[in-house]
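Changelog-adjacent note: as of this version, every example in the card shows the full chain rather than a window. The one below runs 67 residues end to end.
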Amino acid sequence: MFNGLADWWDGVELWLAQAPFPVQFVLVMAVVVPLCLVAAWLLDTAFGKVARLFGTARDANDSDRSS
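Full-length structure tokens:
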């Protein structure tokens, strides 16, 4: 099964490398950019939850309020 997947991916990679630049550009904009946006959103959500788990961020003016 993995050999078939690897062979398919090699074919896709070869096709993409031989495609004209405008085709490569459109594919990057249509596929890679949305994937990066989703990955950034997932990382932001995960790090936000971890940050809330450890406590809230301190405001720069917190030292002024405690006086």
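Structural remarks: Residues 20-64 form one domain.
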